[in-house]
Amino acid sequence: MVLEATMIVVDNSESSRNGDYVPSRWEAQSDAVNLIFSAKTQANPESSVGLMSMGGKGPEVLVTLTTDFGKVLDGIHRTKIRGSTHLATGIQIAGLALKHRQNKSQRQRIIVFTCSPIEESEKDLVKLAKRMKKNNISIDFIAFGDLEPDNTKKLEVFNENIKGGDGSHLAIIPPGPSLLSDTLVTTPILSADGVAPRGGGAEEGGADSGGGGFEFGVDPSTDPELALALRLSMEEEKARQEKEGEKDEPKGESLEGIPEENQSLLDSQGEASGSRGDKMDEDKKESSEPREEKKKDGDGDGDKMDTA
Fold first, then answer.
1. Is residue 307 predicted with pLDDT exceeding 50?
2. Which end of the chain is more exposed for a tag (fewer CB within 10 A), N or C?
3. What are the φ/ψ torsions at residue 289 (nearest 5 degrees)?
4. What tens digit of pLDDT does each residue of 66-78 get?
């Protein structure tokens, strides 16, 4: 799978207080961040994810690149909703954070959530897109909330100028009854990482309708350790059942002389069942030896008589 370093930029401006997305724009972003982190780290355990905000007085790096989900979760809880967005500055700072990644073999990607009006001009965004493309940084936009034609046009122009070999995507998600993260799964941003759609009826892998469409009824994005433990337990149980099935298969005729499970190993006299037979064979052999010697002696006497 792709080895990536991903910086997630969340929109914590005043527009994120709106409740047109369930349960609110900010809570919807938080749930989606959890899903993205799980998708990236499950696709490749060596991939790392960072978190920053672009609202308030200016962008702020909340968590540097890490594989610890607890740090990302703490960064989300520490974020305060305030001010307006600084889109261009936030993308530039995210690019600097990716530049200082420890593993230089990781591909660079920025995922930006935007739910407020974009103040930057289209010309400035085009320059920024070309600069990011030159630095081999892919940028995915998740646009929701204020989906005015001016906003979507700027994002489409940005996306057209940054598209490269690794792929930069633009996902425009209008308000609806479903969660933002559930809709995000169906977009190329996460479908490329092999994330299965959430919700619905029974899915492959043993999920049932009672578990909300998740495998084993557990959401791996909220509790990845429990989901992994359940998956390993299922695999061990399946291997054990296969092993027992092989033992229960009918075998060929049993070998003679080998006692069956329900056959006693001792005879009525308290001796081993096989030793008595061996003893009788030895007695027969000893009784036959004197007869053979006697026969030989008789043959010798007959020869003497003929000579006389």
1. no
2. C
3. -65, -45
4. 999 999 999 999 9
The alpha carbon torsion through 272, 275, 277, 281 (nearest 10 deg) reads: -170
Comparing C-alpha atoms, which of 112, 150, 148, 107 is closest to residue 129?
112
Q: Could you report the per-residue pLDDT of 140-180, keeping only the tens digit for each? A: 999 998 788 999 999 999 999 998 656 899 999 999 888 89
Question: pLDDT tens-digit profile of 208-221?
Answer: 333 444 555 556 65
Contacts of 36 (CB under 8 A, 6+ apart): 6, 8, 49, 111, 184, 189, 190
